[in-house]
Design a protein that fits this description.
about 425 residues, alpha/beta, Rossmann fold, GMP Synthetase, Chain A, domain 3, 3 domains, 5-stranded parallel β-sheet, 5-stranded mixed β-sheet, 14 helices, globular, binds adenosine-5'-triphosphate, ATP binding, Class_I_gatase-like, GMP_synth_C, GMPS_ATP_PPase_dom, purine biosynthesis
Length: about 425
């Protein structure tokens, strides 16, 4: 293994993910572990150079005072208290804290700044090969950031021992299934099973207008399709998953543990009992993107904006029809293209179009029309709990309106959603 590591023992501080990031920003790898980590577990971690204990103001979790075992404290590794329980007071000032952290990591522990994406990838390739041996791995590949980066990493580690399954449920954005095929089948020469399940999903969704039922049908049907594909393949022992660090770090004051084993493809029947391969589970989102870039994935995949699990299905309001779904897909493509041309790609957190299930009167070439409106939405947020509306230049909104009303069939109006969250939510359904 190539990377030195500093282990943070979580004694209940909410600051620990930030502390881990600070250490990583010094170029040294860091992981957060529960306060009751055992000596055996510690010994199993590679290249640990030091321990940091951090419990915030009082090392209390759920009203119970906690501490680390004496074994860990006397295991021979340097120990730093980054809270108020140590002998030396932990500095309050940020610059002093950074210096204390850097002194500990480099001078006291003698760690090397060797946390780079290339080293991470080399280590993961070795770990994946060790875990998987000559067995086969299955991966549900959405084309989203997380599963695409896992796919690229697994392809590098085990090549054709990996089978990727991409399900086109008809609710993907324009060009996405084609991009998955181009990148993974043609450029990376992966075993890719492409499942055209468009009719299957849209038939199941026909006439269903309740948003919760739509989501449930999409989720359940996805599991069914994936299960069918898994059963067609012989000898699969492992399931790759795009679990990332924020998925397993519980926010708030509880001590860090794998809160939910985060079965991304949860709901598979018990007889399909795969062991999980989760090579990104220690990466923050920006690190996942950097990893994808280092593995040669295109920017349009790696820097993709967040996309809801049920896809365009929740932007085609009410009961989904094929023609209205097409209007969502085409208008979304125009919006994305225009935002990219205006330099807003990567600057605005999320932007998309919504097509409601009512029509209004309009006129085109002197003839009366009765068509749908398209709602444009562009928001910024830090944590998705609240969101503000992007101040899109009026001329750009006018240009997008002109294009959508002339290029997208069945549309005669555009509206811009001015509602922050709250009182709206980011998505409409
Ligand atoms: N259309 C699809 N085809 C294949 N797998 C899918 C598809 N949609 C979702 N999945 C699988 O389900 C997982 C969870 O999907 P979700 O939409 O919640 O995205 P996510 O957690 O942001 O991950 P990603 O960035 O990989 O899409 C994905 O990582 C992928 O493994």
């Amino acid at each position: 293994m190539k990377q030195d590591m500093i282990v943070i023992l979580d004694l209940g501080s909410e600051e620990n993910p930030r502390l881990a990031r600070e250490i990583r920003s010094l170029g040294v790898y860091s992981e957060i572990h529960p306060h009751d980590l055992t000596m055996e577990e510690l010994k199993a971690l590679p290249n640990v150079k030091g321990l940091i204990l951090n419990g915030g103001p009082n090392r209390v979790v759920d009203g119970v005072t906690i501490d680390v075992s004496a074994d860990l404290l006397h295991c021979g590794l340097p120990v730093l208290c980054a809270d108020h329980k140590g002998e030396a007071p932990w500095p309050a000032d940020e610059t002093d804290r950074k210096k204390a952290l850097s002194d500990f990591v480099f001078h006291t522990c003698g760690a090397e700044a060797n946390w780079t994406m290339d080293n991470f990838i080399a280590d993961q390739v070795e770990l994946i090969r060790r875990q998987v041996g000559d067995q086969k791995v299955l991966l549900a590949l959405s084309g989203g950031v997380d599963s695409s980066v896992v796919a690229a990493l697994l392809i590098k580690a085990i090549g054709k021992q990996l089978t990727c399954v991409h399900v086109n449920h008809g609710l993907l954005r324009k060009g996405e299934p084609e991009q998955v095929i181009e990148v993974f089948r043609h450029q990376m020469d992966a075993n890719l099973v492409y499942v055209d399940a468009v009719d299957r999903f849209l038939d199941k969704l026909a006439g269903v207008d309740d948003p919760e039922r739509k989501r449930k049908i999409i989720g359940a049907e996805f599991i069914r399709v994936f299960e069918e594909e898994a059963r067609k393949l012989d000898g699969i022992r492992f399931l790759g998953q795009g679990t990332i660090y924020p998925d397993i770090i519980e926010s708030g004051t509880k001590t860090v543990k794998a809160v939910k084993s985060h079965h991304n493809v949860g709901g598979l029947p018990e007889d399909l009992d795969f062991a999980l391969v989760e090579p990104l589970k220690m990466l923050f989102k920006d690190e996942v993107r950097a990893c994808g870039k280092a593995l040669g994935l295109p920017d349009s995949m790696v820097y993709r904006q967040p996309f809801p699990g049920p896809g365009l299905g929740v932007r085609c309001l009410g009961a989904i029809t094929r023609d209205r779904l097409e209007a969502v897909r085409e208008s979304d493509a125009i919006l994305r293209e225009e935002f990219a041309n205006a330099g807003l790609e990567g600057k605005v957190w999320q932007y998309f179009t919504v097509v409601p299930d009512f029509k209004s009167v309009g006129v085109r070439d002197g003839v009366r029309t009765f068509d749908w409106p398209v709602i444009l939405r562009a928001v910024n947020t830090v944590d998705a709990m609240t969101a503000t509306v992007e101040d899109v230049p009026f001329s750009l909104l006018q240009r997008i309106t002109r294009r959508i009303t002339s290029e997208v069939a069945g549309v005669n109006r555009c509206l811009y959603d001015l509602t922050p969250k709250p009182s709206g939510t980011i998505e409409w359904e």
